[in-house]
């Protein structure tokens, strides 16, 4: 292994002493402001820093702060929401700017000295048995990592940067990759960045990773988690070191793990900084791709609903899949789909084998000697028999755009719940996209957007 590659990457991703001093000073100031505000409001709340800054696993230049405001366990949920938001706003008033954001419950997203600061209410938990909301575990996660990392902070940085470079970092539902916490667990479990890469095949075959031996300490609960995740066909089951009920890799998709799998193999064979800092994909002509393959591109463009990415992108994906299934039923082979947004417009792209089909399709019917058979015979004009089964010709729309319009009009394509009306009003384009989507269309059609080997 050429260790110089890793040393060169570390020089770029390890925070400098000056940067560390800035981060530490920033956290100290924010902690003092939070404690002062808690006292002013007469609340019994303990501020905790969580996330990569608190664990010292952050990458150079990435300084987002997660400051959790931990309320006593006996606080009623409604009071947590109300007082938590009030406290978050009061702290944010002393910073540079802020806005209210929403997850399981509202929190405040502020800015201070050019750094994003999330002020999140939670419960002050000491054990997984105390956890009441999804964010409560973050305190336990930070504590576990700091107790377990034993100087492997730079190894975590290398793995995070590698995952970012190969586009597999982030557990958000629209990414479905490795979370930062999962990266930390893997390094702590296997010892180093390189050891995690070497275990890419082993982890997949072992399936279950249990750093805190929950299968021995809490077998009933842990096995329930394993059984659930096996049934859901997850690529990895990583029992959360602080909670046997949770699979840390629950959002990791097979596609994202596959990309990691092959890139890990290639890096070990031929190390290069390109895995950490890939060159921007070269622009190409999407029309050349269509000519090369002899396929067609159908694009729906519509107004982007005012939704955060966590809500919008999964609904766009659901809509794209719904259109794919509906078109397949109608005889139009779909080779792939792509979706997203640009400015105030959202889009769905479908690569299809053809845009025209015959004017009729064969409609299979029931057995001729049944009541349904006699009814089928009466309702259809051209009817024939194959054995005892009836068949008829059914006239259909020939052009794919007419077919999509009919599918949408009759609600015969499954769409995201907030997108149905917007998609119905979409503009349809065939083998053409506006200039702002040309690059997106090329990356999609060339498979360079999600490709392994292109």
From TrEMBL:
Domain Polymerase nucleotidyl transferase: start-end pairs? 35-141
Name its co-factor(s). Mg(2+)
Keyword RNA-binding applies: yes
Instruction: Indicate which residues the UniProt annotation says bind ATP.
Output: 52, 55, 141, 160, 169
InterPro entries of this UniProt entry? Answer: CAA_C (IPR048833), CCA-adding_arc (IPR008229), CCA_tRNA_nucleotrans_2 (IPR042090), NT_2-5OAS_ClassI-CCAase (IPR006116), NT_sf (IPR043519), NuclTrfase_I-like_C (IPR011068), Polymerase_NTP_transf_dom (IPR002934), tRNA_NucTransf2 (IPR015329)
Chain sites annotated for binding Mg(2+): 64, 66, 118
GO function term, MF aspect, one: ATP binding
**Any idea of its EC number?**
2.7.7.72
According to its UniProt entry, one GO biological process term is:
tRNA 3'-terminal CCA addition
What does the entry list as the binding residues for CTP? 52, 55, 141, 160, 169
Q: What is the reaction catalyzed?
A: a tRNA with a 3' CCA end + 2 CTP + ATP = a tRNA with a 3' CCACCA end + 3 diphosphate; a tRNA precursor + 2 CTP + ATP = a tRNA with a 3' CCA end + 3 diphosphate
User: Start and end of every CCA-adding enzyme C-terminal domain?
Assistant: 293-425
Subunit (UniProt): Homodimer.
Anything else the record notes? A single active site specifically recognizes both ATP and CTP and is responsible for their addition.
Q: What does this protein do?
A: Catalyzes the addition and repair of the essential 3'-terminal CCA sequence in tRNAs without using a nucleic acid template. Adds these three nucleotides in the order of C, C, and A to the tRNA nucleotide-73, using CTP and ATP as substrates and producing inorganic pyrophosphate. tRNA 3'-terminal CCA addition is required both for tRNA processing and repair. Also involved in tRNA surveillance by mediating tandem CCA addition to generate a CCACCA at the 3' terminus of unstable tRNAs. While stable tRNAs receive only 3'-terminal CCA, unstable tRNAs are marked with CCACCA and rapidly degraded.
Task: Read off the NCBIfam families from this record.
Answer: cca_archaeal (TIGR03671)
Would you tell me the protein name for this molecule? CCA-adding enzyme
Report the gene name: cca
């Amino acid at each position: 292994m050429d260790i110089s590659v890793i040393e060169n990457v570390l020089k770029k991703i390890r925070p400098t002493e000056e940067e560390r001093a800035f981060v530490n000073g920033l956290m100290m100031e924010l902690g003092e402001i939070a404690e002062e505000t808690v006292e002013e409001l007469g609340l019994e709340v303990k501020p905790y820093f969580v996330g990569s800054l608190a664990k010292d696993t952050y990458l150079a230049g990435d300084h987002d702060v997660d400051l959790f405001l931990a309320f006593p366990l006996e606080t009623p949920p409604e009071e947590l929401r109300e007082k938590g938001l009030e406290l978050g706003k009061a702290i944010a008033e002393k910073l540079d700017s802020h806005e209210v954001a929403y997850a399981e419950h509202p929190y405040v997203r502020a800015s201070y000295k050019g750094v994003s600061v999330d002020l999140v209410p939670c419960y002050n938990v000491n054990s997984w048995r105390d956890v009441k909301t999804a964010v409560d575990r973050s305190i336990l996660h930070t504590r576990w990592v700091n107790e377990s990392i034993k100087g492997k902070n730079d190894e975590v940085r290398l793995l995070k940067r590698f995952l970012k470079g190969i586009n597999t970092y982030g557990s958000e539902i629209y990414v479905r990759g490795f979370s930062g916490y999962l990266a930390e667990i893997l390094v702590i479990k296997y010892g180093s960045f390189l050891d995690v890469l070497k275990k890419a095949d082993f982890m997949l075959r072992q399936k279950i990773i249990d750093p805190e031996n929950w299968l021995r300490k809490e077998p009933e609960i842990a096995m329930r988690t394993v059984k659930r995740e096996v049934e859901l066909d997850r690529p990895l089951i990583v029992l959360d070191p602080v909670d046997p009920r949770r699979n840390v890799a629950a959002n990791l998709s097979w596609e994202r793990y596959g990309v990691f799998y092959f890139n890990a193999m290639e890096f070990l064979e031929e190390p290069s900084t390109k895995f950490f800092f890939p060159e921007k994909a070269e622009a190409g002509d999407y029309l050349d791709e269509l000519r090369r393959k002899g396929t067609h591109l159908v694009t729906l463009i519509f107004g982007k609903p005012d939704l955060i990415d966590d809500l919008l992108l999964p609904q766009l994906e659901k809509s794209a899949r719904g259109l794919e299934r509906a078109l397949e039923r109608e005889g139009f082979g779909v080779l792939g789909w792509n979706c997203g947004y640009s400015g105030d417009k959202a889009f769905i792209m479908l690569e299809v084998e053809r845009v025209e089909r015959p004017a009729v399709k064969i409609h299979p019917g029931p057995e001729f000697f049944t009541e349904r058979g006699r009814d089928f015979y009466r309702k259809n004009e051209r009817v024939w028999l194959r054995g005892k089964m009836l068949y008829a010709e059914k006239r259909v729309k020939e052009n794919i755009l007419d077919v999509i319009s009919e599918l949408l009009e009759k609600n015969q394509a499954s769409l995201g719940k907030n997108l149905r009306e917007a998609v119905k009003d979409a503009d349809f384009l065939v083998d053409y996209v506006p200039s702002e989507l040309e690059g997106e269309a090329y990356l999609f059609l060339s498979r360079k957007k999600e490709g392994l080997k292109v």
